[in-house]
Structure formats: C-alpha cells, structure tokens
Amino acid sequence: MATPSKGQFVWYEHLTKDAGRAIGFYSDVVGWKTQPFEGGGDYTMWVGSQGPLGGVMKLPEEAERMGAPPHWEAHVQVDDVDATVALTRKLGGKVYKEPTDIPNVGRFAVLADPQGASFCVFRPAEAMTAHDVSKEGEFCWNELLTTDQEAAFRFYSQLFGWQILERMDMGPMGTYLVFGVGDRRLGGMMAPKGQGMPPMWIFYTETSDLDSALQRAGKKGARVMTGPMEVPGGGRIAVLQDPQGAVFALHQAPRH
User: What is the Cα 5 distance to its own chain's centre?
Assistant: First the structure.
C-alpha cells in the first residue's frame, strides 16, 4: 500500500461546539462511522470504508477565545514539524499552537498562512496508509479561498513543495490554481471577488449521489452556500454550512 509523502493531506479534523450533534449530522449526510480514539479524551475518529480519515472534538476554549468558529482543518504531512513552524514564521505566517507531541501518534502544530487561513502540519510516529480519494466518503479535494492566491501559493510551495499543475480561467471569478505534489492533484486556490468570506480552506468529500446528500443535509439544518453546480471535467459540487456553522463541501464524480 502507498504511504503519503511530504505535502500530502493525511487527516481532517472537525472542531465544533457540540460534537455529538456533529457526529449525527455527518454520519447521516456523508455516511461516516465513528470510533473512539484510544488515547482517550473527548476525541472521536471519523471512519470511512478505508479506515479512519479524521476526527471530531469540541472546539477548544482557547480557540473560542480567539474568535474561531466551528470549522474543519486539515493536517498536511511534513518531515520536520519544528522546522516547518520556523519556516512559517519566516514567511510571515502565524503559529496558533506550537509543536506538540501526541503519544504514539505523532507531532503536530496549528498554523495560519500570511492571508489568515489556518491549517495543521503533522509528522506521524508510524507510516500512514494513503487512501483512494475517489471512494465514497473520502476527502477528495482541498480548496483554499484567499485574498491573493499567487502570494498564498508561494507560501505553501516553499513550505510543502507544492507545484502549480494547471491554471484555469474562471471568467469573472478570476484564475483557479490547481496544485499538487508531483503529478498528483491535491486541490485548488482562488481569490473570489466579492465573496465576503475570510481566507479559509474548504474540504470536499466524495458522494455518489449529490442530490440525496443535499436533501439529507437540508433536513438536518444545513444551508447550501454554493451550487449544486457542474465543474470542469463533468463532476458536480456544492458548498454547505453545517447546522453549527462549519463550512464543508461535497463532490460527485462524473457519471459515465
């Protein structure tokens, strides 16, 4: 089985006010199961068909005090967390949580890019198994909404070695930068005009039936922010806000 390399997204965390309510929502909408984290605490893991892919926990008080709303954040794998944190500072980013060890799991830190979008870096204690992101319920795309995608890309490329794989002209929406590691596409970056949203990462999960998922989400109190709409390549997407205010997205692959 393949193992993720530096610069790949390896874990997705949901920080929210009511974890039990969030578990009920995402289990129904996305289809994840859950599993308690062996290290204890109030941390619950999201489990897809290929095993754990993330976790959910109550938004820490320190994050709430800093004004953080319920949100999703991803962990990007690095070779050296401390060196990445030092480079983040040098490049004008912020450090929200200094490098911290999780016994038997790995070392992580919570950071923000110079435009203000937060993310985590992670070095696992043991090699992780890469998931097939085309499967139902897997995180399949990582999208950065920012105020300056060229500046943001320079930051992340120095941090993680990401490369621009394609530039897509989105008309009035501007240019969409598709980035990746080697020839593997990981996501996109854009600076939408007049969006009014703060710089943030949005993570897409794969669904085989977008319309049904949107119906289930709506019944549970989610709000559709964008879409459903077709994207280049024939897939369909929608961006939503869950009942507690966290933004997430769904993707349905083209039907052949």
Answer: 17
**Of the candidates 63, 182, 57, 186, which has an alpha carbon nearest to the alpha carbon of residue 118?**
63
Beta strands in 78-199 (DSSP E): 94-102, 106-112, 118-124, 139-145, 163-169, 175-181, 184-190
Alpha helices in 72-188 (DSSP H): 81-90, 149-160
- pLDDT tens track of the chain, all 256 residues? 466 778 999 999 999 999 999 999 999 999 999 998 876 678 999 999 999 999 999 998 888 888 889 999 999 999 999 999 999 999 999 999 999 999 889 999 999 999 999 999 999 999 888 899 999 999 999 999 999 999 999 999 999 999 999 999 888 778 899 999 988 999 999 998 766 778 999 999 999 999 999 999 999 999 999 989 998 888 999 999 999 999 999 999 997 6
Contacts of 171-178 with CB under 8 Å at 24 or more apart are 174/149, 175/149, 177/149, 177/150, 177/153
Amino acid 41 reads G
> What pTM, to 2 d.p., does this model score?
0.94
Return the ∠ at Cα 232 (arms to 230 and 236), rounded to 5°. Answer: 30
